Amino acid sequence: MQRLDMKQLLSQKLSPQQIQFIKLLQIPTAELEARIKEELEVNPALEEGEDEPEDEFDDLDSGDDDADDDYDDPDAALDNPDNTLDEDYDGDQRDEQPEVELPVKEEQPEAPESSSESEDLDLSDYLNDDEIAGYKMQGDGPGEDDDGREMPLADTSGSLMDNLLSQLGFSGLDERQQTIGRQLIGSIDGDGYIRRDLSAIANDLAFSQNLEVSVPEVEGVLHVVQTFDPAGIGARDLQECLLLQLERRVQEEAVENAERILQDTYEEFTKKHYQRIQQKLDLEDDEIKEAIGLILKLNPKPGGSGPVGGGKIQYIIPDFLLSHDNGQFNLTLNTRNAPELRVSPAYTEMFRAYDKASKKDKKMKEAVTFVKQKLDSAKWFIDAIRQRQNTLLRTMDAIVRYQREFFEEGDESKLRPMILKDIALEISMDISTVSRVANSKAVQTEFGIYPLKYFFSEGIATDSGEDASSREVKYILKEIIEGEQKKKPLSDDKLEKMLNARGYNIARRTVAKYREQLNIPVARLRKEL
């Protein structure tokens, strides 16, 4: 049995303008430059340059500001199938009838006029328009390419693979061996290692190059590749990598002892059981100390010592510039990658030409619709950029006021506990907005460049009753570990007691978590001779 029901629902939708603002807000300065260039390419109504006076579009207005109140749907007149824009229109009548009600045939040209009002676009006129998809700009909504877009980074001068292939060309190998060598070089990862089995590489040569080779033959070419620069390249594990680097050293006593340690007592070396190594190899204290010191100076990742194949070097471009002068903070946006934008005056002239045209056929209507869409898109984009800058400044200003002591002295111990909610309440915005601002943004201060996430940390209870920043606790923990005796490093239990003695109520598991976040190994691995 069929039933007809009526129900009332309350839902919330994001307009294309809101989606565009969210996307622009979360990208850093480096990517903003690419986003602006992309928009300049797809929208001819948007161009670089200083803003025109606010009355740029006054000639296109109806002559009465109240006309906007009745103009809820800017596309209603143009999208009405009954309207063809092929009737003559007297421009003088427009001034006599500023009040319009849509849709009305005689007042169709009013639609393109109101779209080119002042540059301060009132987005509320468009929020209730379900047919807003016609105005949707590239990048407004989720797309296939948006999520995978990489931040624009500076390319390196060359790649490790190119360097190795160049050396392979001068190695004197025949064509068959060079084919094997190219396959081996292609199997080297970013750290400079070949982690695949040689049998698998031989199978790849059989399938891809139609070249049947044996594992010993591949290994023979591998030994040649391992003689290339940088030293240690093409190793199959860390032990082989370190030994390859030692083989290029002058064979002195310290080098020979280091090779013995890696060959005969590698497991004890990884666990820093130095006494067992001394007993097994019959080494004096000075000899093992010199050999261990030599090993520690070797490069465990030779692939990172030169340009990595296909890799990029990321340079941090600060989004904010903060200076301190006579007790006052000066906060500015880094706008060198955000040029001044304006709506193209040429498109305004097009509107004037369309208004004065005596004949308005279907093609004229399509042209008006296209120009109107581009003008709306340009104004929405400019508005989103301005709103982005305003939100960034408000958020960063609140962070500076909250962490004023740190920005004055640069002392990490002066950082206060601060979470996203604190800043959101300060600037009366949603937590998600503050999160988007803090994500991938950085500020340049007198003490260096810091990511905004650096200033957010949880609080740790103290004996005084006040909360201390977890960043402050990590700073003190790092100081304690750096000042410990390396022959007898402090365990997590001892570190916990020392922090408790300083008034920080912290558990041992929290000490271990903070130590791992600081990339500090356990006490046994911090032991030195």
Automatic annotation (TrEMBL):
NCBIfam families: rpoN_sigma. GO terms for cellular component: DNA-directed RNA polymerase complex. Belongs to the sigma-54 factor family. Residues 369-527 form the RNA polymerase sigma factor 54 DNA-binding domain. The lineage of its organism: Bacteria, Pseudomonadati, Bacteroidota, Cytophagia, Cytophagales. Gene3D superfamilies: Homeodomain-like, RNA polymerase sigma-54 factor, core-binding domain. It holds the Pfam family Sigma54_CBD. InterPro entries: RNA_pol_sigma_54, RNA_pol_sigma_54_core-bd, RNA_pol_sigma_54_DNA-bd, RpoN_core-bd_sf. PANTHER family: RNA POLYMERASE SIGMA-54 FACTOR. One of its GO terms (biological process) is DNA-templated transcription initiation. It comes from the Bacteria. Residues 91-108 have a biased composition (Basic and acidic residues). This is RNA polymerase factor sigma-54. Residues 154-347 form the RNA polymerase sigma factor 54 core-binding domain. Residues 47-76, 116-132 have a biased composition (Acidic residues). GO terms for molecular function: DNA binding; DNA-binding transcription activator activity; nucleotidyltransferase activity; sigma factor activity. Residues 38-157 are annotated as: Disordered. Keywords: DNA-binding, DNA-directed RNA polymerase, Nucleotidyltransferase, Sigma factor, Transcription, Transcription regulation, Transferase. The gene is rpoN. The keyword Ion transport does not apply.
